[in-house]
Design brief:
The protein has 3 domains: 83 residues, SRP54, nucleotide-binding domain (Four Helix Bundle (Hemerythrin (Met), subunit A), Up-down Bundle); 195 residues, Rossmann fold, CATH 3.40.50.300; 139 residues, 434 Repressor (Amino-terminal Domain). Strand 7 and strand 8 form a beta hairpin. The chain has 21 helices and 8 strands. Helix 14 runs antiparallel to helix 17. By secondary structure, it is of the alpha/beta class. The two termini are 22 Å apart. 57% of the residues lie in helices and 9% in strands. The radius of gyration is 25 Å and the shape is flat.
Length: 444
C-alpha cells in the first residue's frame, strides 16, 4: 500500500534528516520536493499546496528541541500534518438505541461496493452483531446473485425481493430484520458507471424512507482524484457519514486517501486491504501516516496478532521458548497464525523501518509458505519433535513426500535453527520477552 509514495517520501526525508543545521532555504527546497511527491501521488493540487505551506510555517516557527535534531523535528511535523490531513481521529460507527441499526453502502459501479457489504457484515459479526445484507441493486446484471453467493460463503443471510423497487426492498428488509432478530441491516445499493440524476434521486429516497444510521461512500482507492470528485458529488446529494476506500492492497498512489477528507470534510472510516472478506480494516489516520512515512504500524500489527493467536496458545509458546523446546510443530503452528494475519507484504509494511526498505518493497512469495507446510507435514512425529534425527536419507524421503528438493528441506532446517537462536535470545530477556513487547500475543 502506497509503496511508491512511501519510497519517494523516504528519499526526501532522508535528505532532511541528514541536514545538521536547517535554514529557511533548505527547508523550502525539501518541501518543494515533498510537494512534487504528493502531486505525483495524485493528491489534490490545493491540498498539496496547503499541506506544504502548513509544514513550512510550523517548521520555521518552532524552536528546535534539544533532544532531537532539526531534521527529525520536521519529520514529526510532517507526520502530524499527514494525520490532520486524513482526519486527526478515528471515526466510529453509530448504532441505534433500538435495533436494527441501518447501514447504507453507495458508490459508483466497479468500486467494490458489494464486496464491501460482505466484508462489513463479517466485521460486524465478529463484534457479536447479527447482520442482514440487502440486495437493493436491481439494475446491474448478477448483482443480486453476487450478494447471495457472498452470503452463502460467509453464512450471513441476504434479503431480496422480486418485482419491487429498491426503496420498497430496503423498507421491507427492516421489517424482516425485526422479525428474525437481526440487529444490523446493510443496504447494497445500485451504482452507475457515472453519476446521474435518477440514480441520486433513488438513493435520496432510500435515505428519506429508511433513515440510515450510517451512509458510506465506497470508492476505488486506486482512482485518485476521480474518487475525490465522485465523493464530492455524492456528498452534495446524500450528505453521507464516511468514506470507504477499497483495493488499497494494490498499487494505490495515495491521492484519494490524502485528499478526500480535506475536500469533502468526511472521514475515511474503513479501508479494504485485500480480496478476502476478513481484510476490512478500520481507518486510523495516525497509523496510516506512520505507514506512509515508512515508520510501520505496530499497534495494528499487535491487533492482528491478538486476533490470530489465542491467549492460551501464546502462553504455551512462551513456555516452550523458556524451556528451549521449540519444535517443528510449533514452527508450523506459528506459520499458520501468521497466514491468518493477512498478506505478508502488509505485515512487513507494519514493521517499523521495513516499509521503504528493500525487504518491504520485495514481492513476498506466499507460495513459499505452502512449501514449508508441505515439508513439515512430510516429517514423522519424532522428526518434528527432534530435528537432529534428520539425516541425509530422511531429508530425501521428506523432499519426495512434499514435492520439493533436499535443498528446500535444508533451507527450512537452517531457518528453524536461526529461529531457535532468536527464541533463546528472547527467553534470556525475562520480562523483556516478546510477551512483554506485544502484550501477550506475538507472531513468529
Amino acid at each position: 500500500m502506497f509503496e511508491d509514495l512511501t519510497r519517494k517520501l523516504d528519499h526526501v526525508l532522508k535528505k532532511i534528516k541528514g541536514q545538521g543545521k536547517l535554514s529557511e532555504k533548505n527547508i523550502a527546497d525539501s518541501l518543494r520536493e515533498v510537494r512534487k511527491v504528493l502531486l505525483e501521488a495524485d493528491v489534490n493540487y490545493k491540498v498539496a499546496k496547503e499541506f506544504v505551506k502548513s509544514v513550512q510555517e510550523k517548521s520555521l516557527g518552532q524552536a528546535v528541541l534539544k533532544s532531537i535534531t532539526p531534521g527529525q523535528q520536521i519529520v514529526k511535523i510532517i507526520y502530524d500534518e499527514l494525520t490532520r490531513l486524513m482526519g486527526q481521529s478515528t471515526a466510529s460507527l453509530r448504532f441505534a438505541n433500538i435495533p436494527p441499526t441501518i447501514f447504507m453502502a453507495t458508490g459508483l459501479q466497479g468500486s467494490g461496493k458489494t464486496t464491501f457489504v460482505g466484508k462489513l457484515a463479517l466485521y460486524l459479526r465478529g463484534q457479536k452483531h447479527s447482520p442482514l445484507m440487502v440486495a437493493a441493486d436491481i439494475y446491474r446484471p448478477a448483482a443480486i446473485d453476487q450478494l447471495k453467493t457472498i452470503g452463502k460463503q460467509l453464512n450471513i443471510p441476504v434479503f431480496s425481493e422480486d418485482g419491487k423497487n429498491p426503496i420498497q426492498i430496503c423498507w421491507d428488509s427492516i421489517q424482516q430484520a425485526r422479525q428474525n432478530g437481526n440487529d444490523v441491516v446493510i443496504f447494497d445499493t445500485a451504482g452507475r458507471l457515472h453519476i446521474d440524476e435518477n440514480m441520486m434521486k433513488e438513493l435520496s429516497e432510500i435515505k428519506e424512507k429508511t433513515k440510515p444510521h450510517n451512509i458510506f461512500f465506497v470508492a476505488d482507492g486506486m482512482t485518485g482524484q476521480d474518487a475525490v470528485k465522485a465523493a464530492t458529488e455524492f456528498n452534495n446529494w446524500l450528505a453521507y457519514d464516511g468514506v470507504v476506500l477499497t483495493k488499497m492492497d494494490g498499487d494505490a498512489r495515495g491521492g484519494a486517501a490524502l485528499s478526500i477528507k480535506a475536500v469533502t470534510g468526511k472521514p475515511i472510516m474503513f479501508v479494504g486491504m485485500g480480496e478476502k472478506f476478513n481484510t476490512l480494516e478500520q481507518f486510523h489516520p495516525d497509523r496510516m501516516a506512520s505507514r506512509i512515512l515508512g515508520m510501520g504500524d505496530v499497534i495494528s500489527l499487535v491487533e492482528k496478532a491478538q486476533i490470530a493467536v489465542s491467549e492460551e496458545e501464546s502462553r504455551r509458546m512462551e513456555e516452550a521458548i523458556r524451556k528451549k523446546r521449540l519444535t517443528f510443530d510449533d514452527f508450523l503452528q506459528q506459520l499458520r497464525q501468521i497466514k491468518k494475519m493477512g498478506p505478508l507484504e502488509q505485515i512487513i509494511g507494519m514493521i517499523p523501518g521495513l516499509g521503504a526498505s528493500p525487504l518491504g518493497k520485495a514481492n513476498v512469495d506466499e507460495k513459499a509458505l505452502v512449501k514449508v507446510e508441505a515439508i513439515i507435514q512430510s516429517m514423522t512425529r519424532e522428526e518434528r519433535r527432534n530435528p537432529r534425527l534428520l539425516n541425509g536419507n530422511r531429508k530425501r524421503r521428506i523432499a519426495r513426500g512434499s514435492g520439493t528438493t533436499v535443498q528446500d528441506v535444508n533451507r527450512l532446517i537452517s531457518q528453524f535453527n536461526q529461529m531457535q537462536k532468536l527464541m533463546k535470545r528472547f527467553s534470556k530477556g525475562g520480562k523483556r520477552s516478546m510477551r512483554g513487547v506485544l502484550g501477550g500475543n506475538y507472531p513468529f
